[in-house]
Amino acid sequence: MTQSEAKNTDKILAGEYVLGLLSIEENTQFEARLETEPHLRRYYADWLEDFVTLTDDIGEVAPPAGFYAGLEKRLFDTQQAPELAAKSGSLIRFVLGAAVAMGICVLILVAL
């Protein structure tokens, strides 16, 4: 690999790091290199600046009225829990659904 190709690879790697696309192992290796290689820190800073500027023209948007109250009610309302259990039909179906959801989450995390 030529020096030019290595620089280009490092630039791409820094961008992937900023976006969170690296595996845990690659992430750890890149962070170790960041401590000792100033050019990687520069690439990292450049990518951060590039991505931050993408949002400069986007104005702040306030959530709709009652959004937070509705969210808290959906998340923490103890009166809804019995309704959910009654709708699911049985505890077994609920547990199986939760197990499938957990399995999917694990597969997604492993793929990252």
pLDDT < 50 runs, ≥5 residues? none
Broad structural category: mainly alpha
Radius of gyration (CA) equals 23 Å
Element-level helix/strand string = HHHHHH
Q: Describe the biggest sheet?
A: none
Helix share bin: over 70%
Beta percentage is under 5%
Number of strands: 0
Description:
It is a single chain. This protein is mainly alpha-helical. It folds into two domains: 3-53, no CATH class; 71-111. The chain has helices at residues 3-19, 24-36, 38-53, 67-76, 80-88, 91-111. Helix 2 (24-36) crosses helix 3 (38-53). The longest helix is centred in the C-terminal third of the chain and has 21 residues, at 91-111. The relative contact order is 0.06. The mean pLDDT is 83.
How do the strands and helices of this protein lay out in sequence?
Layout (H helix, E strand, L loop, with lengths): L2 H17 L4 H13 L1 H16 L13 H10 L3 H9 L2 H21 L1
Features:
112 residues, mainly alpha, 2 domains, 0% strand, flat
Task: Write a brief structural summary.
The two termini are 27 Å apart.
